[in-house]
Amino acid sequence: MELENEEREKDIPFSQDFGKTAPAKGSRSRAPSKEERLAMKEIKMREKLEKNATREKLRQMKPGECIKSMKVIIDSNIVAYRYLYQSIENALQEFGADLTVEQQPIRNSITWSRSGSAFTDREDSENDAVIIWSSEKFSSVVCNDKLSYAIQTIKERLPNKRVTLLIYSGSDIGMESEDLVPSLDSVNAYGARRKKATTLNKKRLEMELGRLQFEHDCSYRLIEARGEVGKVIAQFTKAISEIPFRKERERQEQELAWLAAADSRGCVRVNKSSHGLAQLWTQQLLQFNNCNLDAANEITKRYPTPQALVKAYERCATEQEASTLLKEIPIVRKCIGDLAARRKLGPELSRKLHLLFTCKDPNVQLYNE
Description:
The protein is an alpha/beta fold. It has helices at 2-11, 34-61, 82-95, 135-143, 147-157, 202-214, 226-241, 243-255, 277-285, 293-302, 306-315, 319-323, 347-358; strands spanning 70-75, 98-102, 109-115, 123-134, 162-168, 219-223, 330-333, 341-344.
């Protein structure tokens, strides 16, 4: 017997650690190979980089931060106009935007690009372009009947861009007549160029600016002072930088129900003691187009709560009686002396209120019945 017990003790595996049982046969998990460990490490590193990139992208989209990722690219010809260039440079430095000088396809033009996150060097070009024209050049283009040609040339050289003309009345920018192509009626029979009047009256100016918007889909800004040019460019930069943030906010608001949109304009505050419910009931009645404050007060005087109105509808014998329950309510418009106007609520508003509180079909429209 003792020998049998000793043999059994030898057969039973015993863990060296006290209190731990030996793993069952075949239950030990296989250690991952070196390639598997490297693959798992690479997946975790990629997920971490994606999270950091998403976090950085959301941070850059916030107002105040998004403008730091903007690069303002101005044409090298603008640098020649020292005071104008300094105005733009000083305005952009206040916002923290990057300023780059490059030769652009159109003289005196300004474009924008947005740098990616800190994890990528990619830059995305924005769809806006601003071109600075002197008022003399604009007048010359219009008087030579070359406005359509000039705008068409700009859009061909800057495809897929929303073009805005800054018409500057200062003397910092010259005529740049080399950009203009003379029309046939500006050349006489001897081949000599005939000068045309370059002064626009107010009526002609307004008409041409209207053509600029409606016929050529081109915006404009009239600038008088030199310092305003820098402010306008800074405003454009700020507005363009916030486009992704506004689009994301609109997308989130569209996904939410209108009750969760956090639009607190014109709301009525109701406290824990139910103070404000009467005002809320009046505000609900005022949502109808033909229900003014006097009519709402007369309804709430007879039916202090929506539930009281619903119970009154339930007590009616027929549907027609319920639909015309409120039409005879008198409405007195308070005025001084004998000028008080008296009228009745009317069947139309009575029908709409009855339909609103009793109809069970969610597709019924109140105003298209």
